[in-house]
C-alpha cells in the first residue's frame, strides 16, 4: 500500500480549471518530485494534498485513510523558511509541538536531540537573523520534520539559495532523509534538481495541469557526487526535455 495516494484530483477556480484527473502515489522512504513550469498547478495540488483546499473531484489517502480536506495530517514547507524572527531557533523548531499542546520546555527537550543530525548543533539559542540562508533552511526543514508523520511536502525549499549552497543542501538533504527515513513530495521547476534528488519524477504540464509522464531514476542512493556529469544524468534530462517539448 502506498503511504500517500492522490486519486483522480480535479480542481477549478470559477470557470478556470487548474488540475484535471491527477493521480500519483508516494511509497515509504521515497522522494517523489512534481516537475513542471509555473502555472501548471503544482502548488494548488500541494494545497489539496495538505488539506488546505478541497478538490472538486478525487480523494487523498494517507496510509489508507481518507484525509481529503483535513489539514494538519501532512507537514508542508513553503519556499520561504518563515522562521519567526523573535523566537530562538530552538523555539522555532519546537513550534509545531507547542501548537499541538505540548509544554514549551517539553517541546524543547524533544527537539534538541535532532539539532546535531540536521547540522544545527550550537544554533539552539540563536535567532534567525544570525544564521545563513542554508542554515535557516535546515532549521525550517527540521521544524517540518518535527510536525511530520513520516511524510513531508516541500515547495521549492532551495530555490532562494545560491548555486553552491543549493548543491551542498541537496547532498545534505539526501543524507538526512536516508537517516531519518522521511518520505518527501518535492515541487520544483528545476530539472537538474529533480533528477539529483528524486526516486521518481511526475511531469505536471498543460493548462489545466495533468500528469503527462513519470520517470524512475535508477541511480542508487546515496548518489555519486559527480552524478550530474554522467551520461546517465544527461539521458534523464534529455527524456524530460523531450516530454516537456511535446507538451
TrEMBL record:
Keyword tags: ATP-binding, Nucleotide-binding, Transport
CDD domains cross-referenced by the UniProt entry: ABC_NrtD_SsuB_transporters
InterPro entries: AAA+_ATPase (IPR003593), ABC_transporter-like_ATP-bd (IPR003439), ABC_transporter-like_CS (IPR017871), ABC_transporter_ATP-bind (IPR050166), P-loop_NTPase (IPR027417)
Pfam families the UniProt entry points to: ABC_tran
Classification via SMART domains: AAA (SM00382)
Gene3D superfamilies linked: P-loop containing nucleotide triphosphate hydrolases (3.40.50.300)
Single GO MF descriptor: ATP binding
Domain (ABC transporter): residue spans on this chain: 4-231
Protein name: ABC transporter ATP-binding protein
Amino acid at each position: 500500500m502506498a503511504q500517500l495516494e492522490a486519486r483522480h484530483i480535479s480542481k477549478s477556480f470559477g470557470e478556470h480549471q487548474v488540475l484535471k484527473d491527477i493521480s500519483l502515489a508516494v511509497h515509504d522512504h521515497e522522494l517523489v518530485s512534481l516537475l513542471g513550469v509555473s502555472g501548471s498547478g503544482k502548488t494548488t495540488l500541494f494545497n489539496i494534498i495538505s488539506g488546505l483546499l478541497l478538490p472538486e473531484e478525487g480523494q487523498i489517502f494517507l496510509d489508507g485513510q481518507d484525509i481529503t480536506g483535513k489539514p494538519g495530517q501532512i507537514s508542508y514547507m513553503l519556499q520561504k523558511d518563515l522562521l519567526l524572527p523573535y523566537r530562538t531557533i530552538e523555539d522555532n523548531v519546537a513550534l509545531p509541538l507547542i501548537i499541538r499542546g505540548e509544554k514549551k520546555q517539553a517541546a524543547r527537550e524533544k527537539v534538541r536531540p535532532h539539532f546535531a543530525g540536521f547540522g544545527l548543533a550550537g544554533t539552539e539559542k540563536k535567532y534567525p537573523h544570525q544564521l545563513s540562508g542554508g542554515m535557516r533552511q535546515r532549521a525550517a526543514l527540521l521544524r517540518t520534520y518535527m510536525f511530520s508523520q513520516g511524510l513531508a511536502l516541500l515547495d521549492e525549499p532551495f530555490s532562494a539559495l545560491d548555486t553552491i549552497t543549493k548543491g551542498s543542501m541537496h547532498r545534505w538533504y539526501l543524507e538526512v532523509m536516508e537517516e531519518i527515513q522521511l518520505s518527501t513530495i518535492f515541487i520544483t521547476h528545476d530539472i537538474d534538481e529533480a533528477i539529483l534528488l528524486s526516486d521518481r519524477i511526475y511531469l505536471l504540464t498543460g493548462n489545466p495541469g495533468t500528469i503527462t509522464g513519470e520517470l524512475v531514476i535508477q541511480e542508487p542512493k546515496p548518489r555519486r557526487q559527480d552524478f550530474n556529469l554522467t551520461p546517465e544524468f544527461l539521458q534523464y534530462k534529455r527524456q524530460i526535455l523531450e516530454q516537456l517539448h511535446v507538451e
